[in-house]
Amino acid sequence: MIPLLILSKDSKLIHDYVDKLKVGSLFFEITPSTKEYSIDDIKNLIKETKIYNPKVRIYYLENFHHSSIPAQNSFLKLLEEPPSNVQFVLTTDNKNNLLPTIVSRTKIVKLQENNKRDDVEKFVFDETKLSLANYKITDKESAHNLLLQLINYFRERLDTDKKSTIIIREILSLNRLLESNNLNPQLTVDQALIFIWKKYNMK
Q: Where along the chain do its domains lie?
């Protein structure tokens, strides 16, 4: 059975999806013995999956990005020759935190949050304190730092938000123009914010 890799930062969405997988299967949630999955945890999993059982078994490893590199390498061997009636379900908030070889052997399931726009607006206008009306930016360094905050934020959303790619490109372009030209720092940041706002509020 093809292993699943569920991508989302929303634990409720993940649990709702996994609950549907449980129907008609034997379900086992694997938890790490420490803060991260160790190679011993994976070795124990390998031993367990080798025990024959005619029923379909699902082994669920939540937040698998919290695992050591040796553990991931050991798990990769299991993915290469999985038992026929066993399915592995991994979750992560960012596939780039896993070995590419693991990602390539899974079917990626991207769960879309319903409140993308609200999350973006909260970050842009609350957490970064970027307000078109109230926040005054007087120098290039401040503008540059705020643009980098935005870039990092949208990079983390690349797997779940299709708008992130074009937003990152626009902000990178503005940042380059800010560095190479005498653009007004405040207007540069304002332009980035307006661009983001339009992407989530205009059809």
A: 4-110, 116-201
